[in-house]
């Protein structure tokens, strides 16, 4: 199975289980994320939700081009992009806080997925970046919208997206994207990160989360994320994108 779902002592875990594909998101993973969200959204006993990837090489390398590269027009690409934006919006507005356990590379759509979470716990060997520009497209699952909505320094965030480059954990901390950087065992790092938070009743965390999401909902975040998907779909049908994808696939072989 390409994903796993576990709930243990009020913590819900979603793990992308495609390490051979660098935990890239395909339709099966999308379905898994939707199932995960359906399971926890209305469960008042869940304190935190954790999203991660299997292994230690990749948190998530974005969309699986073997599934998605066949799209040629904006009309072809938009349903997948819109679905991704809907999933990330649901993650961002979950009633409980969410943690991206970035145990390896988080690039492209993987960087968007981590951005949708409230906290990003980043391994010292991990790298992350909005590298979609190398394929002549923008972020398309609403991740850039979320990035700017979370009120970091505008100029740095604009460079973070538009340079289409990979960033070290130290740079991610400086940007404010990484919450913490950890060394060593991932499970130990997560336990240490959660320990002080679990001393506070889950209703307090949920109340503060609702304050943040209330603002986002009032400001039309969902519509803005769907507009990002639409803009990406227009770029998707460009010759520049198709040529860049072909170069990437040829190089991968």
From TrEMBL:
Q: Which Pfam families match?
A: ECH_1
Major localization listed first in the record, in broad terms = cytoplasm
What this chain does, per the entry, is described as:
Decarboxylates ethylmalonyl-CoA, a potentially toxic metabolite, to form butyryl-CoA, suggesting it might be involved in metabolite proofreading. Acts preferentially on (S)-ethylmalonyl-CoA but also has some activity on the (R)-isomer. Also has methylmalonyl-CoA decarboxylase activity at lower level.
Q: Where in the cell is it found?
A: Cytoplasm, Cytosol
Tell me the protein's name. Answer: Ethylmalonyl-CoA decarboxylase
For this protein, the record's InterPro entries field holds:
ClpP/crotonase-like_dom_sf, Enoyl-CoA_hyd/isom_CS, Enoyl-CoA_hydra/iso
Q: Which UniProt keywords apply?
A: Cytoplasm, Lyase
The EC code for this enzyme is 4.1.1.94
Q: What class of enzyme is it?
A: lyase
Catalytic reactions of this protein: (S)-methylmalonyl-CoA + H(+) = propanoyl-CoA + CO2; (2R)-ethylmalonyl-CoA + H(+) = butanoyl-CoA + CO2; (2S)-ethylmalonyl-CoA + H(+) = butanoyl-CoA + CO2
């Amino acid at each position: 199975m390409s994903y796993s779902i576990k709930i243990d002592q009020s913590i819900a875990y979603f793990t992308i289980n495609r390490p051979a594909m660098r935990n890239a998101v395909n339709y099966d993973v999308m379905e898994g994320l939707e199932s995960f969200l359906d399971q926890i959204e209305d469960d008042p006993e869940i304190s935190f939700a954790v999203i991660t990837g299997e292994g230690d090489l990749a948190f998530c390398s974005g969309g699986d081009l073997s599934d998605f590269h066949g799209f040629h027009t904006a009309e072809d690409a938009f349903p997948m992009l819109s679905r991704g934006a809907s999933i990330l919006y649901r993650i961002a507005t979950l009633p409980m806080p969410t943690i991206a356990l970035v145990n390896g590379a988080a690039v492209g759509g993987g960087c968007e997925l981590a951005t949708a979470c409230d906290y990003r716990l980043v391994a010292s060997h991990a790298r992350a970046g909005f590298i979609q520009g190398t394929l002549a497209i923008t972020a398309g699952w609403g991740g850039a919208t979320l990035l700017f909505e979370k009120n970091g320094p505008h100029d740095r965030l604009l460079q973070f997206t538009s340079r289409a480059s990979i960033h070290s954990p130290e740079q991610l901390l400086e940007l404010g994207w990484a919450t913490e950087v950890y060394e060593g065992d991932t499970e130990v790092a997560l336990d240490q990160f959660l320990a002080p938070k679990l001393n506070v009743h889950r209703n307090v965390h949920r109340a503060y989360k609702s304050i943040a999401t209330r603002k986002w909902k009032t400001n039309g975040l969902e519509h803005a994320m769907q507009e990002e998907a639409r803009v990406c779909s227009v770029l998707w049908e460009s010759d520049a994108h198709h040529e860049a994808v072909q170069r990437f696939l040829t190089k991968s072989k």
